[in-house]
Amino acid sequence: MTRSFTAWLQAAPLAIVLVGFLVAPIIMIVIVSFWGATEWSIYPAFQFDNYAYLFSSEVTYRVFFATFKYAFITWAFTLSIGFTVAYFLAFHVRTQAMQIALFLLCTIPFWTSNIIRMISWIPFLGRNGIANQTLISWGIIDEPLEWLLYSDFSVILAFVHLYTLFMVVPIFNTMMRIDKSLIEAAYDNGASAMQTLWHVIVPLTKPGIMIGTIFVVTLVMGDFITVRFMSGSQKANVGRLISNDIGLLQYPSASATAVVLLCTVLIVIAVLLRFVNIRKEL
Amino acid sequence: MESRSRSFYVLATFFALFLLFLYGPTITIAILSFQGPQGGLTFPMNGVSLYWFFDLFEEQAVGDIWGAFRRSFGLGLMVMVTTVVVSVAAGLAFRKKFPGAGILFYLAITSLVIPSILISLGVGLIFQQLGLKIHWATSGFGSQLTWTLPFGLLIMFAVFNRFDKSFEEAARDQGATAWQTIRFVILPIIAPSLLGVALFGFTLSYDEFARTLMTAGSYNTLPLEIFGMTTNVTTPVIYALGTLTTLFSFLIIGVFILTVFFMQKRRSRAGSDAGKGV
C-alpha cells in the first residue's frame, strides 16, 4: 500500500505534465474540431462540417498520399543507411573506445539545430550551388539541374539527413546485445557472411529496426517545417495543411485535420508495436 | 589479430561517406559565413572576412537575436532541470508496480511520437480559450517538456534495467531509510546517466521548434527567430548565426561529454573502499 503510494508520488510530476500538455491539448483539439469558424473568430458548436469538408476535398487525399510517400521513401533510405552504419560500428569496429567515439560522432548532430541543418543544404543544392557547379565542371550536365532544391528530392534528402540517426541508435543498441557466439556458431556451421547477416543478425536486430521505424515514420508524418522549408512552400503534406489553416486562424478546420492525422499515426504505431516490446529493449 | 576483410573497407568507406553527409553541409556554411562583404549565399568565396559576424551584432540588421538567445538559454535550463528531476522520479516509480503504470508509459510514448504540431495547436487553443497569456516560460515550457520528458524517461528505463539491485539491498540491510538509499546510493551511481538526461533536456529544448511555434507568444526563442530570418534574410549573415549556434551546441555537448568522462575516470581511480573500514 505505502509502496504503491510512494510510486504514485514519484510518478505524479510526469503524469501532471502529460495530462496538462498532452492529454488536455488532444481533448481540446477534438472538441474544437467540431466548432465553427468565421474569418476572424471561432465559436463553439457541434457540427461535422469540418470533417465533411475534409473528406470531400480531393486535396486531402492527395496530401495524405504525399505524406505516406515521404514517410515510406525516407524510411527505406534511413533504414538501409542506418542499418549499414550500425552494422559497421557493432561488428567491424574492434575496440569499445573506438565504437563509443564513432557512435558519438553519429549522434552529435542530433543535439544541434534542425533548422540550421536544413539551411546548410542551400549552398549545396541551389541553382548555382556546389552540386550544380561540380556536375557542370565535370561535364556531366550543361544546364544547372532545377530539381535539386525546392523539390521532393530536397525534402527527402533533408529528412534522411535529419532522421537517419534515429535508426542508427536503436539498431546499434540491439546489435551490441547480440551474443557474438551465435555469429560464430553460424560461421562454424558453414554459413556465408551474407547468410549470417540475413538469417542471424537481421532477425535478432528486428526490435531495434522497429523502434527506429516508429521514430522515423512518426517524425516524417508529423512534420510540417522540413517540407515547407526544403520545398520552398511548393509541396504539401498533412502537417502543412494544418499549419496553413492555423495561419489563416481556421482552428476548427486545422483541428479536424489534426485529429485525422493523429488517428493515422496511432494506427501506424499500433501496427508497428505488435512487433516489439519497447520496455524490454532499453 | 586476423587481418581486415574486404567488407571492412567497403563498410568503412560507407561510414566515412555517411559522416561526410552528416557534417559536410554544416562545415560548408561554416566556411561560407566568412564570406567577404560582397559575398553571396554560395561559392565562390568573395574574399574572406568577419563581416557577417559583425553584422550579427548590429542591432537592427536582423531581429532580436540576442534577446532570443537569452530566452532560449533560460528556457533550456528550466527544461533541463525539470526533465532531470521529473524523469528520475518517474524512473524510480516505474521500478515498482503501481496501478496506472501501463497507461502512463503509453502516454509518454504517445508524447514522443505525436505530431508536434498537435501539441502546438492544442496548447495554443487551451491558453487562448482560458484567456491565459501565451508565453515561452509557461505554454512554451510545458510544450517542450512533452518532447524532453519521454527521452528522459526512456534513458532512465535503460539505466534502471542495468542497475544492480544488490547495492540498494545492502544499503537497506545496513539500516538506510528509503530516502537515504536514493540520496546516497542510487543517485551517485546513476549520476553520469543523469548528465545524459540533462544534455538531452537542454539541447532538445534549445533547438526545439515545432512544439514552441504556437506556444512561445510574442517573444521568440532562437530557433523561431532563425526560422523567421530564413524568409527575409538573403545574406550570409544567416550562415554566421547558424555557425555560432552550432558552435554553442558543440560547446555544450563537449562540456557534458568531458564531465562524464572525468567522472568515470575519477570513479575508477577511487575504486572500491571495501575492507578499509569506516
From TrEMBL, chain A:
<keyword id="KW-0813">Transport</keyword>
<feature type="transmembrane region" description="Helical">
    <location>
        <begin position="70"/>
        <end position="90"/>
    </location>
</feature>
<dbReference type="InterPro" id="IPR000515">
    <property type="entry name" value="MetI-like"/>
</dbReference>
<keyword id="KW-0812">Transmembrane</keyword>
<comment type="similarity">
    <text>Belongs to the binding-protein-dependent transport system permease family. CysTW subfamily.</text>
</comment>
<feature type="domain" description="ABC transmembrane type-1">
    <location>
        <begin position="64"/>
        <end position="272"/>
    </location>
</feature>
<feature type="transmembrane region" description="Helical">
    <location>
        <begin position="12"/>
        <end position="35"/>
    </location>
</feature>
<dbReference type="InterPro" id="IPR035906">
    <property type="entry name" value="MetI-like_sf"/>
</dbReference>
<dbReference type="Pfam" id="PF00528">
    <property type="entry name" value="BPD_transp_1"/>
</dbReference>
<keyword id="KW-1133">Transmembrane helix</keyword>
<feature type="transmembrane region" description="Helical">
    <location>
        <begin position="251"/>
        <end position="276"/>
    </location>
</feature>
<protein>
    <submittedName>
        <fullName>ABC transporter permease</fullName>
    </submittedName>
</protein>
<keyword id="KW-1003">Cell membrane</keyword>
<feature type="transmembrane region" description="Helical">
    <location>
        <begin position="102"/>
        <end position="122"/>
    </location>
</feature>
<feature type="transmembrane region" description="Helical">
    <location>
        <begin position="153"/>
        <end position="172"/>
    </location>
</feature>
<keyword id="KW-0472">Membrane</keyword>
Automatic annotation (TrEMBL), chain B:
<dbReference type="Pfam" id="PF00528">
    <property type="entry name" value="BPD_transp_1"/>
</dbReference>
<feature type="transmembrane region" description="Helical">
    <location>
        <begin position="103"/>
        <end position="127"/>
    </location>
</feature>
<keyword id="KW-0813">Transport</keyword>
<feature type="transmembrane region" description="Helical">
    <location>
        <begin position="73"/>
        <end position="94"/>
    </location>
</feature>
<feature type="transmembrane region" description="Helical">
    <location>
        <begin position="184"/>
        <end position="204"/>
    </location>
</feature>
<keyword id="KW-0812">Transmembrane</keyword>
<dbReference type="InterPro" id="IPR051789">
    <property type="entry name" value="Bact_Polyamine_Transport"/>
</dbReference>
<feature type="transmembrane region" description="Helical">
    <location>
        <begin position="237"/>
        <end position="262"/>
    </location>
</feature>
<feature type="transmembrane region" description="Helical">
    <location>
        <begin position="147"/>
        <end position="163"/>
    </location>
</feature>
<feature type="domain" description="ABC transmembrane type-1">
    <location>
        <begin position="69"/>
        <end position="262"/>
    </location>
</feature>
<dbReference type="InterPro" id="IPR000515">
    <property type="entry name" value="MetI-like"/>
</dbReference>
<protein>
    <submittedName>
        <fullName>ABC transporter permease</fullName>
    </submittedName>
</protein>
<dbReference type="InterPro" id="IPR035906">
    <property type="entry name" value="MetI-like_sf"/>
</dbReference>
<comment type="similarity">
    <text>Belongs to the binding-protein-dependent transport system permease family. CysTW subfamily.</text>
</comment>
<keyword id="KW-1133">Transmembrane helix</keyword>
<keyword id="KW-0472">Membrane</keyword>
<keyword id="KW-1003">Cell membrane</keyword>
